Every structure is written in structure tokens, then in C-alpha cells.
């Protein structure tokens, strides 16, 4: 039983977009690894940008810096 955990920042991914991710990953595992879609588990965790860091800064800080230009 494959288990895939997708982590994204909480920035407004729609229910439709998340459903598309779940469906797409499930089909990818079926097509590439021959896994049974009926036993494939896909979860999506949404993380606040304050709780996601890159290069020593939170995504919130990085995005604010990008907006300042």
C-alpha cells in the first residue's frame, strides 16, 4: 500500500486543485510502479508560511522581501 504525503504552503489551493493532485499522484504510481490505485493513500498537509523555512528565513519573510523588490 503506497503512502504519499504532499506538503504545500497554506496559500489558497482549492479543493479541486488538491483533488487533482491526489488523482494525479495515484495514477502516476499506477503507471510507473504498477501500484493498485485502490490501495494507494495520498495525503496533503497545508503548512502556514510562518512554519515553512527556506535558507534560514520563513516563507512569510521571503515573500515580504520579494514584494519589496
Automatic annotation (TrEMBL):
SUPFAM superfamilies: Tautomerase/MIF (SSF55331). Residues 2-61 form the 4-oxalocrotonate tautomerase-like domain. InterPro entries: 4-OT (IPR018191), 4-OT-like_dom (IPR004370), Tautomerase/MIF_sf (IPR014347). Its EC number is 5.3.2.-. It comes from the Bacteria. Keywords: Isomerase. Transmembrane segments: none annotated. The keyword Isomerase applies. It is an enzyme of class 5 (isomerase). Belongs to the 4-oxalocrotonate tautomerase family. This is Tautomerase. It comes from Azospira oryzae.
Amino acid at each position: 500500500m503506497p503512502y504519499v504525503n504532499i506538503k504545500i504552503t497554506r496559500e489558497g489551493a482549492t479543493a479541486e486543485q488538491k483533488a487533482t493532485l491526489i488523482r494525479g499522484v495515484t495514477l502516476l504510481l499506477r503507471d510507473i510502479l504498477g501500484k493498485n490505485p485502490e490501495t494507494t493513500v495520498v495525503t496533503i498537509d497545508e503548512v502556514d508560511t510562518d512554519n515553512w523555512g527556506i535558507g534560514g528565513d520563513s516563507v512569510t519573510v521571503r515573500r515580504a522581501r520579494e514584494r519589496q523588490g
